[in-house]
Structures are given as structure tokens and as C-alpha cells.
Amino acid sequence: VSHEERGGGVNRVHLVQQLPHAIIIGVRKGGTRALLEMLDLHPTVVTASQEVHFFDNDENYGKGFAWYRSRMPHSLINHVTIEKSPAYFTTEKVPERIFGMNASVKLLVIVREPVTRAVSDYAQVLEGKLRKNKTYPSFESLAIDSTTDRVNTKYKAVSTSIYTKHLERWLHFFPAQQIHLVDGDLLISDPLPELQMVERFLNLPPCIGRDHLYFNSTRGFYCLRSGQHRGTRCLAGSKGRRHPSVHPAVLHTLRLFFHPYNQKLYQITGRTFSWQ
Ligand code: A3P
């Protein structure tokens, strides 16, 4: 409980920490940070700034829901709390654990064209290796099995992009209406309509508007305008990395590989994405 003094009188503002009402469960490199930060523009949304990794990390999970709640931001009781931990989407035991916390929690998944997402995933890992002065194989050699010349589905950057495979596990626990898919490519090129769809999904009053976002041509991305003084803020430089160039034949093989999974995703979710 905190006290806020105004004009001599005392207004008591009851602040609480609440378990999340909505969770951005993934997908890694789909634009999860941008989505979280943009939803935070909404006046009745509060977000956990760090990835909490409660459900995918056994040690954290063992600390219990009171610990999880203590990681959440302070808010008013009627505010909506959101956290994001992209590892949730692909970690097998997570759907059941989240269901055990709250069977009616709302789930957000931001997806991106699967080949681009895989390359982005590779680019992030590569950067980490290079920073430690380590060498790392090429994307092509990881994504394609050289003995069979087929796509290597054991490579995590590939398997994470098989969205249906993971989504099906979630659908064993949660009805489709409780899982909202955000188009990560559209969140890059024209974020507002995507954000307005999320507002509707979360039953929030429509508050995020054109003046909250502006295109920063230096960054090549939308940046945020928020607060009383409408201060501006872009995402960290690690968001929007340069991708390595990948051999066109490998890109083509991967696109063909993902095609049937993409079709299945459109069928399951009722949402079509403009992926080749
Ligand atoms: P790239 O680095 O491949 O361009 P995540 O937060 O899940 O790791 O996703 C990172 C991706 O978010 C970036 O991938 C970037 O393309 C995307 N993104 C979407 N909107 C963005 C924005 N407004 N600013 C920076 N990156 C954004």
C-alpha cells in the first residue's frame, strides 16, 4: 500500500502485485519484446520488465506462485499484468503448468515468417559466440543435414519455427479462443492494427493510438512515445540485428519445408499469414 499526497489531502492508492492475466509465451525472435513494450503503452497494462522464466525453469518453478507473483510489477487491482518469457512456447511441460496456475489466463504468441525467424535466431546465437571469441558453424550447415541434404529438424532454430507442432501441445490444455496470434511481420511494418487486435482480445478499452508510435528511419523500426511528456524510446540495439546472408538454395529448401506446417497453422488458428 502506498500513499499519495495531493493538495493537502491524502489519497490512498492500493498497489498490488498480481499473477499475470496474460502471458506472451513466444515465439523467440518473433518480436516478443516489441509486443510487450508496445502493450505497456496502454494505461491499464503493467508489464514485468525482465523475462521471469518461471514455468520453464524447474528451480524457479520450485519457488512457487508466491515467488512468481513477487516478480510482477506493482499495479492497481483492476490493471492487467503481462509477462513474457519466449522459452515457454517450446518447453514441453509449460502448458500444463500454466493451466495449473490459471486455466483462463490469456496467451499471446507472436509469430514471424518461419525462415526469417530461424535466421534471426541463428544471428542471436552467433553474436553471443563471437562476443566470446568462439567460432560457430554457418547457418547453412546447421539447417541442412549434409549427409541426407534434408532439413535438419533437430536444429533448434528450425524446430522452433514449426509453430503448429508446439501450438498443438498448448491446445491440449487451452481452447483456441484463449490463444491469440500476433503477426510479427506486421508488428514491424504497421504495428497499430496488431496492437488494437490485442486490446480487443484482452478486453481492454482502445487506448493505444497513432501518437504512441512513430517510425524512426534511422533505426528502421517503429519507436515508442509515452508518458506525460511524450518522451521517445526505441528498443535496444540488439533488436533489429543484421542477418547473415544465407544461400538462396537453402532459403528455398527451408521455405518448401515449412510450407505444409504453415498451412496447418492457418487451418488451426483461422488466421492466414502472408508467408510464401
Ligand atoms: P531481428 O533482430 O531479427 O530483426 P524478440 O524480442 O522476440 O527477440 O524479437 C526480436 C525481433 O523483434 C527483431 O528481430 C525485430 O525485427 C523485431 N521487432 C519488431 N518490432 C520492433 C521494433 N519496433 N523495434 C525493434 N525490433 C522490432
Strands of the biggest beta sheet: in what spatial order?
A: 5-7-4-8-11
Main CATH class: Alpha Beta
The value of Rg in angstroms is 20 Å
Mean pLDDT: 95
Helix content percent band: 25-40%
The gist of it:
Belongs to the sulfotransferase 1 family. The chain is α/β, with parallel strands linked by helices and 276 residues long.
Task: Characterize the structure shown.
Mean pLDDT is 95; it is low at 1-7. A hairpin with a 2-residue loop joins strand 1 and strand 2. The relative contact order is 0.16. The chain has one domain (2-269): P-loop containing nucleotide triphosphate hydrolases (Rossmann fold, 3-Layer(aba) Sandwich), CATH 3.40.50.300. The protein is built from eleven helices and 14 strands. The strands form five sheets. The protein has a five-stranded parallel beta sheet with strand order 5-7-4-8-11. The longest helix is centred in the last third of the chain and has 22 residues, at 248-269. The protein is of the alpha/beta class and 276 residues long. It starts with a strand and ends in a 7-residue tail after the last helix. It is 38% helix and 20% strand. The structure holds adenosine-3'-5'-diphosphate. The site of adenosine-3'-5'-diphosphate has 17 residues, from helix 1, helix 9 and strand 13.
